[in-house]
Amino acid sequence: MPAGSRGEASRERLFVSLKNLILTLLAIGKTRAELLVNEVEEEKYRLMSLWATAVGAAFLFAVGLVLLVAFIALVFWEQRVLVFGLAAGFFLMTAVFLVLALRRQISQPSRLLRASLAELETDMAQLQRAMDKQ
Question: What angle do CA 63, 60, 87 make, to 5 degrees?
């Protein structure tokens, strides 16, 4: 076999290998993008459901508490000022507690897209090993 044809054959194999590598990278990227979109969609629906449930529960709980305070004030009519004052203090202390809990939750990092990032790191490590072998 002449030297020129061997060079052309190895160049052809290099281009085929490079083309396969690019196609593999594109396929991996497409798969990871689809995974990312799925995770974002799932998180969006989960948050919407949680938000609707929380708003409904908070509204009904607030109405129930107002009615309970009114009932207690009616039962103890002579001490109604004390009943309303204690109820207001309880509500304010609970609100402060909830604000502090909310601040603590906000300071914690989000776990959104952790699976996608872990998969991308795995892919990058596999590609690096494949590149080192060549």
Answer: 40
The pair of structure tokens assigned to 104 is 């603590």
| Domain parsing of the chain, residue ranges | 3-133
Contact predicate 120/39, CB 8 Å: no
Measured distance CA(32)–CA(9) in Å, rounded? 34
User: Which pLDDT does position 73 carry in this prediction?
Assistant: 93
Using the CB atoms, write b or e for 76-110: b if 16+ within 10 Å: eeeeeeebeeebeeeeeeeeeeeeeeeeeeeeeee
Segment 51-83, tens digit of pLDDT: 999 999 999 999 999 999 999 999 999 999 999
Q: What residues contact residue 113 under an 8 Å CB cut-off, 6+ apart?
A: 36, 39, 40
How far apart CA 45 and CA 110 sit, in angstroms, is 16
